[in-house]
Design goal:
Number of strands: 11
Number of helices: 1
Distance between the termini: 100 Å
Order of helices and strands: HEEEEEEEEEEE
Strand order of the largest sheet: 1-3-4-5-8-9-10-11
Shape: globular
Structural class: mainly beta
Helix content: 10-25%
Strand content: over 45%
């Protein structure tokens, strides 16, 4: 073989090795797209609330339950691995989180802690005189892949003076404990 043929053969061999190497664009484990099917209806439940006072303040209540309250969580897909979630409570108000990037763990979609939106509370919510829009943060949450159960913990920031309310959504109907 002549010298040109040897160089040409080596060049082809090198090119073939680079083509055979994998791409760095492959998804990392646990980051594959999450397929979310559309939710059919809403998950119904109730809310417990705990007052989280500002620094130096005192909590006015813990595990407060509004009598006859109905709360719902509705979910819909907005894009691959993203969903929109609406929390509605006749005692606390309404809030919608849009474009939440979720991950899947078994039979659950895990919602991203720290997502923010606003909650619109009507005048007289929780028996108060207030009303208006307040900052709302998703502390933790999950939705079943069948969209038949939900677990949410939200924090509604009221003011520097008043503090915030931690709202926990519970699926089902509230049953008052029997007192001794």
């Amino acid at each position: 073989m002549n010298r040109n043929s040897v160089f040409l053969s080596l060049a082809l061999l090198c090119t073939a090795s680079f083509v055979a190497c994998g791409s760095d664009d492959d998804p990392q484990p646990g980051t594959e797209p999450v397929e979310i099917r559309p939710a059919a209806g809403a998950i119904t439940g109730w809310t417990s609330a705990t007052h989280v006072p500002s620094e130096g303040g005192r909590a006015y209540f813990t595990d407060f339950h509004s009598p006859n309250e109905v709360a719902t969580v509705s979910v819909s897909q907005t894009a691959d691995a993203q969903l929109s979630l609406t929390y509605t409570s006749d005692a606390w108000g309404k809030a919608t989180f849009t474009a939440l990037n979720v991950t899947r763990q078994g039979d659950l979609y895990i919602l991203p802690a720290g997502a923010t939106t606003t909650i619109t509370m009507q005048r007289g919510a929780f028996g108060g005189n207030g009303g208006g829009e307040y900052a709302l943060t998703l502390l933790s949450g999950s939705i079943s892949t069948k969209f038949d159960s939900a677990d949410l913990v939200l924090s509604a920031f009221m003011s520097e003076h008043h503090g915030s309310y931690e709202l926990t959504f519970h699926q089902g109907t509230y049953v008052a404990p029997i007192e001794d």
